[in-house]
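Repro:
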Amino acid sequence: MGHERLPPATSAEPDPEEAFASALTRSPKDSSRRLRGAVAHFLGTAIVSGQIKPGERLTGEVANAEALDVSRSAYREAVQVLTAKGLVESKPKAGTRVLPRSRWNILDPAVLSWAFSGEPDKDFVRDIFELRAIVEPAAARLAAERRDKADIRAMKEALVRMRRHTLATDAGRTADRDFHDALLTATHNDALMALSASIGAAVTWTTQFKQRTRALPRDPVPDHVRVCDSIVAGDVESAGAAMRLLIDLALEDTRITM
């Protein structure tokens, strides 16, 4: 628990140093913001994937900066990003340690992206889908009660783009995220609407993850159509049930992929 290290390479997962080098290729060194993001992505992915476990200590600032071939300030700023997301905690003399999963802001879109950039932890996936199963069916029921013409138009437009582009494309996945965002907006509940970025990120990354090595096992667009039709009809119970089915099927597809 107390040893210091950078994440190791394993045969089951991409070499993290290769991933970091790739990130740097996309992130010019003259951009401190992008460099900080590349380092945060590298370390965040290692932590969320379990390569660096809760309680373990990151290598010291100087050693890590040298190992990653970045400035100490870029490394320090990256650790601050991880700290803000609840992944690590830094204390004088004690160094920087990975915090328990219960402290992580797992709904942060960046944390979600780190989780699904490699092989996600099964418990992490379970937690995300359980949250969606609690929130989204209830949101669908509220949307069926409160939707207005603008909400209906936004959901239908997103469905049109999902059909046109399919979820195998970035444009299709963006439309999928927009559909879920429009549904939450249709609740006219500010607290639920505040979850749109997190729910949208979860939808996008799980969909992309399911297509890493093969096509989606089935077309999920009809599942979304059923949700939309129930909301448009103002059928509260059907809207909730259709959304719950959509999430259950999405979880099953993700389990098959894993």
